[in-house]
Amino acid sequence: MTAQTPQDQAQARSLWSAGWARFRKNRLAMTGAVIVVALYLAAILAPLIAPHDPIEHGEVPRMRYLSPGSAHPLGTDKFGRDVLSRIIYGSRISLTISFLAVAISVVLGSLVGAAAGYFGGIVDSVIMRFVDALMAIPRLFLLLTCIALFSRSVWLIILLLGATGWMATARLVRGQVLSLREQDFVKAAEALGAGGRRIVLRHLLPNTLTVVIVAATLRIGGIILTEAALSFLGLGVQPPTPSWGQMIFEGREVLLGAWWVSTFPGLAIVVTVIGYNLLGDGLRDAFDPKQFA
Fold it and tell me: Would the pTM of this model clear 0.90, i.e. be above it?
């Protein structure tokens, strides 16, 4: 068994402190962080801040396709439902799906990549050839096939997005582990009799955490776009549950007459993706050793 020395612990804390100091000085990164935090607060506080019930139909002949005004700041859709309320509640779907899907892909990719990088040899060859084969399959095609075979649900979409997005993380972690496994702390753990599983879980994976967090943050925006594409194709979340992609799909036929139905959900997606990309870029610039080696 190995333990970190006080000097190692102090060095790790200083690296994290220096990274956060660099992050706070990056205005674009802080802007992205503010956007992301505001989105999650809006999703959590949706019942308190949404002005109307997102699935309640209005008086259709009178309230359908009302333009933005004081009663409905972002207008209404074809059923007289408030667009602003549906966007606020739709953030719950998009943010939850993206966060959980990325969490699944990060866990799977990190474990697979760490095993391939540490054990090497035939294990590495078999795992990476399998990863290459999966990466050769178009992701959207695979998602459409799986969703068509099973009943649609939020949990199925989360599982599929996570299960089809771990390969890039596996390659990233493998590369990090290949460089880490030759370092002294790994050799010392092996000399003291630590098993492969312990070395991977206690020594190698924690040292790849920074790179994985940065990569995961950058990929959340892509997951949101993929979920929106599935909803736009009618294969995402089942109506009447609001989803940004579904709202864009519903407004596609009235883009000229009722432009607000699709435009505002589209802007919500754009702002969210930009926020996550700014946050991810800032984390990379602050914590990726390659950026300040």
Answer: no
Instruction: Tell me the per-residue pLDDT of 133-184, one tens digit each, with 9 for 90 and over.
Output: 888 888 888 888 887 787 777 888 888 888 888 898 899 888 888 887 777 7
| Structure tokens, 15 | 């690296």
Amino acid at the residue 212: V
Amino acid at 13: R
As a whole number, mean pLDDT of residues 223-248 equals 82
What residue spans of 150-288 are helical by DSSP H? 154-163, 167-180, 184-191, 196-198, 205-207, 209-232, 244-250, 260-287
Give the span between the Cα atoms of 235 and 141, in whole angstroms. 12
6-25 helix and 260-287 helix, angle to the nearest 10 degrees: 140
Element (H, E) at 76: none
The C-alpha atoms of residue 22 and residue 30 are separated, in whole angstroms, by 11
Q: Under a CB-based contact definition with an 8 Å cutoff, are residues 281 and 220 in contact?
A: no
C-alpha distances out from residue 203 to 116, 149, 206, 207, 222, Å: 15, 41, 6, 7, 30
Q: Give the separation between CA 124 and CA 110, rounded to whole angstroms.
A: 14
Contact 120, 179 (CB under 8 A): no
- Which residues make beta-bridge pairs with 76? 82
Residue corresponding to tokens 């800032």: 282
